[in-house]
Design a protein that fits this description.
Blueprint lengths: L1 E3 L21 E4 L15 E4 L3 H14 L2
Parallel strand pairs: 1-2, 2-3
Length: 67
Amino acid sequence: LLVIGTSLQVYPAAGLIGYAREHIPIYYIDPAPATNYELQRAKQVKVLAENASTGVRKVVEKLLLQI
């Protein structure tokens, strides 16, 4: 699951993380990532404090290495 460019304060984006199954990796990409939210599975969320173009490129490269 990719969550990109949100403060996680406004729905529906704020609730997306809660819908991911436990085994699904979650990448949260934002230049100023929110820190005042609760995550049920915090270990599952990988936060990249990057702009969208840089952060998405890094996630794609990482995922392609896993193929």
